[in-house]
Amino acid sequence: MTVKNPILEQLEQLRSARDTARDAAIAMAADETFDAEDQSFKDLEARATGLDTQIGRLAGLLEAQKSADALDGRLSRSPQVPEQRSEAPQSWGEQFINSDVFKEFGDRSLRGTSGKFEVEQRALPHSLVSMDAALPANPIYNLTPTPLPPMLIPLTSVIPVSSNSVEYITWKKKAGGAAVVGEGLAKPEVEWEPTVVPASLDNIAGRTSFTRQLAEDAPAVVAYINGELQADVTRKAETEAKAALVAATLPALTGPAGAGVSGAIRAGKAAVVNAGYAPNAFLIHSDDLVALDLESVTNFRGDPYWGMTPVVDPNATLGTVIVGDFKAGVAHYRRSSVALYMTDSHASNFALNILDALAEQRSKTVVVRPAALVEATAGA
């Protein structure tokens, strides 16, 4: 029975705890909604760093102990006969030729029999016991949260605000327009009509609970749960942004007859360009996007989306897309990005060893320039 050094066991435990904390911090940092000021991330990072320091000191002490033990052994050892150089290892063929079985084969071959020959096999340089420190203490699972699909909000103008209420201005050209004018002649007037709209930010939030034991024993799992909670808040903010587009009064047109949704998208892009904007995306129902992709396999070459990003809206009307310059036409006012809070002070959670995680974001998405967008319907 092999007796394991208790100090080595402690070192392995420290390594396992450090790797667990570091894996959890990496999982949080890889998330799209990662916040470097998140307290749970800072705690994991500090724990991993502290354990690294402790492991380094303990490993240094062990190395010093081994050196001292080796020196003591050399001092107490009596003089020995100089070690003779071993011969180079023989191959299996050389071992067989030099064996007694091969030498006796000539006599026995007449009777059709021969002795049994065993080949010397060299063991691996390390046993499972000596390699134990290099093997993971627990199974390794990939807990990276699933990335979100292409989103609308990153395509808009994101405006940070410092209060819970905002006033935004929508602009509409009322009269006039630019023209070619000779020198010395009066320049045409262009009249814009602003509309001030007050609004309050939406507080989008959600919470979940898990035990303190899970947080201590499987921090990577907890990081995954928290990442999914934050992603759920982001998805709801996306839903609200798409709803604001659908509710807005936008210029409308019908695409060429028989050209389907691809014709509506192309006509919508042309209308936005004619209005003086640069379309960067279109909002489309998932079934319409499938039809567009299948059509592109047969008919399109190069970029099937004409340089724009498709954003799927499951609540969109089939056969209708919103094409536009979302950077110019839509503003996303944000008081804070998705923040994560954790506590054990809710209700009787402290006595039950339950932690509550809450994720929330205060934001509002509004259409500020309707003329930069077009609601295009496929022609019959």
List the helices and strands and how they pair.
Layout: H1 6-29, H2 39-76, H3 92-97, H4 100-108, E1 157-160, E2 165-176, E3 190-200, E4 202-211, H5 212-217, H6 219-247, E5 252-257, H7 260-274, E6 281-284, H8 286-299, E7 309-312, E8 320-324, H9 326-329, E9 330-334, E10 339-343, H10 349-352, E11 354-367, E12 373-379
Parallel strand pairs: 1-9, 5-12, 6-7
Antiparallel strand pairs: 2-3, 4-11, 6-8, 8-12, 9-11, 10-11
Helix pairs in contact: 1-2, 1-6
Summarize the structure.
By secondary structure, this protein is an alpha/beta fold.
Can you describe this structure?
- 39% of the residues lie in helices and 23% in strands.
- By secondary structure, it is an alpha/beta fold.
- Among the domains are: 1-56 and 129-144, no CATH class; 153-165 and 204-379, phage-related protein like domain (phage-related protein like fold, Alpha-Beta Complex).
- The strands form three sheets. Strands 1, 4, 9, 10 and 11 form a five-stranded mixed β-sheet that branches.
- α8 (286-299) links the parallel β6 (281-284) and β7.
- α1 runs antiparallel to α2 and α1 packs parallel to α6 (219-247).
- It is elongated.
- It starts with 5 loop residues before the first helix and ends with a strand.
